[in-house]
Amino acid sequence: MNAVSSSQVNITDVVLRDGHQSLIATRLRTEDMLPACAKLDAIGYHSLEVWGGATFDACVRFLKEDPWERLRAFKDAMPNTPLQMLLRGQNLLGYRHYADDVVERFVAKSADNGVDVFRVFDALNDLRNLETAMRAVKASGKHAQGTICYTVSPVHTLAMYVDQAKRLVDMGADSIAIKDMAGLLTPYATGELVAALVEAVDVPVHLHAHATSGLAPMCHLKAVEAGCRHIDTCISAFAGGTSHPSTEAMVAAFQGTDYDSGLDLEALKEIGDYFRGVRQKYAAFESEFTREDVSVQINQVPGGMMSNLANQLKEQNALSKIRDVFNEIPRVRADLGYPPLVTPTSQIVGTQAVMNVLTGERYKTITNEVKRYLQGGYGHPPAPVDDDVRRQAIGNSPVEEGRPADRLNPEMARLTKDIGELAEGEEDVLTYAMFSELGRDYLQGRRDGSLVSEPIPAPDAGDANRPVTE
Amino acid sequence: MNAVSSSQVNITDVVLRDGHQSLIATRLRTEDMLPACAKLDAIGYHSLEVWGGATFDACVRFLKEDPWERLRAFKDAMPNTPLQMLLRGQNLLGYRHYADDVVERFVAKSADNGVDVFRVFDALNDLRNLETAMRAVKASGKHAQGTICYTVSPVHTLAMYVDQAKRLVDMGADSIAIKDMAGLLTPYATGELVAALVEAVDVPVHLHAHATSGLAPMCHLKAVEAGCRHIDTCISAFAGGTSHPSTEAMVAAFQGTDYDSGLDLEALKEIGDYFRGVRQKYAAFESEFTREDVSVQINQVPGGMMSNLANQLKEQNALSKIRDVFNEIPRVRADLGYPPLVTPTSQIVGTQAVMNVLTGERYKTITNEVKRYLQGGYGHPPAPVDDDVRRQAIGNSPVEEGRPADRLNPEMARLTKDIGELAEGEEDVLTYAMFSELGRDYLQGRRDGSLVSEPIPAPDAGDANRPVTE
Ligand SMILES: [Co+2]
Ligand SMILES: [Co+2]
């Protein structure tokens, strides 16, 4: 993070994390990334997003790579550029709330192994789920980026986002990220939001806008004009669609203006050419659901969620009900206090909407996840939930108002004991902590020398089963 | 063209012409377009670009369709939307200058058969090459759109473009189009150019920006903010890359703002879904050279031209010289008075640059096309040509200063006689006029009932040989 003129745009390239997560099911292997690292490191990026999100899971589950080793390899190969990760707050890189001691050790070891910038978010924007992680980042001396998950609802006003940004700064955030995972932002809404945030806080505002609906390059432009100086882009070979605007295009857009990023287009083009070759190797993981699709601008349902629901209905021979389900989603979301639709809330809302349609009676059947959600198991919803739905779901059982992790006892000692000598270091204990049996199997396989990474299917093997989790 | 509020953005969709010309080598057949026409006609577009450019050639050469019949079918199927064509000034839809009587009859018959809006351009921006066509459009009572071919050079200043726009209005232009065939425009350059044109002329300014370099959606946005109210887009299935920004994305970008186009996203999405299926049928015509590529922003050489040159050099085992050729192109272009690089000037400049590099001595060999160009055979170059190069090329032979078509005698009588009874109407004479032997063969085949359209190759048959001409 060099000294820059006040109007210069700073670029974070996400090709090593979000780019391949969005377009080829997070399958990119370290061996295909390392050959580009010297060139990436020489570009002069503000930072490179290289770790976290679904990559940790994909390493352990599919690639049989040690994610910690990947991180160290990146740090060796890119010593001059701040390396960035995406962290799901109290969920870290797993799928449940972890005890605070796990969060603290996970952040400390991530910092030790090479992460310089931590982007921390919570699906509900319940900042209590970010507290421990943010504090741990600050304790490690690294950059803590507090995140706002962007969504659209009657309660998600500019004032609400401004308030959240201020509270993040109070928690020690060194910068604020707007995270538009679904492509909901429009150019003029972006301009207003950025202007409000830039006015409200003294730290830099970053924009992470998925290009799903085709609007993200324009959102970047209006964000920059409104005072945003940090945008996320992806080298062209892994840009567009459900990924991000291409780095080359955004650099070219601002070249020769006061916003000029100063990055060299020819050097970027060489990196693009390299990754274009790489992408062909992973053609089997391409999916029709990663293309540009304006649907999310019509009904606010993210593209990945729509395709999941279509598959779910198809399996039950009920695809003809898909319109009803799409119409039911906003109603369920309202009942649940307007959660942003991102993992895990997209699954929670979507599955309940399917139930409500297929049973022919709303909330006749209620999923356990909705019950847990209504009990406060994920934190505070953005707005009050519907009282009748809550009573129907959990009767008079109490709603936990406290921070979910406050109900968890320390776990590191137990985890360390459980995994025993299979762990060669604390990193391994944390891998086990994330995925339990999957983690153990991985560590056992490593001990036995029996790890075999998932083969890369022939290009015409059809759409991959893909995690859609950030 | 309905009455609209002063800030409303008007959309011209190019899917039936430029979309498939840019992405699948102009191969889309009428039978695959007609099923969408009722829906297209119901959208409320400002206009639909459906004819001209390379489509006339592709109909006769590859598809063995009567282009006039296609036009009439469109008119029948889309009675409520103005239909638009792209016309190469005195070159009409062929590859040479035609006599004025051919131009007059071609325009008259195009109007008779259904064209409502004529976008007329000349590769050198020599307006004398537009005069006859513009006058003929006015005589037919249709909309005459005067076009500025956008390029970047020391002489292509805002003042030059403003002057051109004013002269087009003086010629009777009902609107002005900025045509950025190569993707050279950047957002802020667009804003400045549009602002200058809107200030200078009272007719609407249209923007036709190819998305080659990934900047076109942002160019549209800045154009609209600068006062442009008419943009060209393409339904998403044939958008992006060397085509245009997607209609859906641009409609979504302005939705709910003062610029709102008023078009219905769900109706557009249905059309996109239809054409997505159609595009798969033509997969064999997809090419790696139609993807987003920032190169043109680095060296101002259009993408299509770069790939043609690479092929040319490969055939002569001289691919290693490609850097030298790219460096030579701007020098040749300067010597020739900075022509915009579009058919035919892109071929003229490119081939001479290859010669200059491969012979080891600049202008040791000079192509006939360069000689013809320097003799004034294409019209006035935008700036004076290099005197030494001209002397070396054509010695002391005179430079024609007059309008190229002034040297041509009327042709219709001769053409009508030549083609004889093979022509069932004046339209057929004009088809013959465009392509001579190819036209005759087509008409003969129609008479004999022996027309067979080019088969659509299997999807993995590799890149198509594609015309790159507008
Ligand atoms: Co993301
Ligand atoms: Co065009």
Task: Describe the 3D structure.
The structure is a homodimer of 470-residue chains. Chain A is α/β, with parallel strands linked by helices and 470 residues long. Chain A has 2 domains: 10-285, TIM Barrel, CATH 3.20.20; 301-405, Conserved carboxylase domain (Cyclin A, domain 1, Orthogonal Bundle). In chain A, 47% of the residues lie in helices and 9% in strands. Chain A has 20 helices and 8 strands. Chain A has helices at residues 15-23, 30-43, 55-63, 67-77, 100-113, 128-140, 158-170, 187-200, 216-225, 247-254, 265-281, 295-299, 303-315, 322-335, 345-358, 368-374, 387-394, 412-419, 426-435, 437-448, and strands at residues 10-13, 47-52, 83-87, 117-120, 143-149, 175-180, 205-209, 230-233. An 8-stranded parallel barrel of chain A has the order 1-2-3-4-5-6-7-8, surrounded by 7 helices. In chain A, helix 18 packs across helix 19. Chain A binds chain B through residues 186-188, 213-215, 217-218, 221-222, 236, 239-240, 245-246, 248-249, 251-253, 255-257, 265-266, 268-269, 272, 292-295, 297-298, and chain B through 186-188, 213-215, 217-218, 221-222, 236, 239-240, 245-246, 248-249, 251-253, 255-257, 265-266, 268-269, 272, 292-295, 297-298. One cobalt (II) ion binds at residues 18, 181, 208, 210, 470 of chain A.
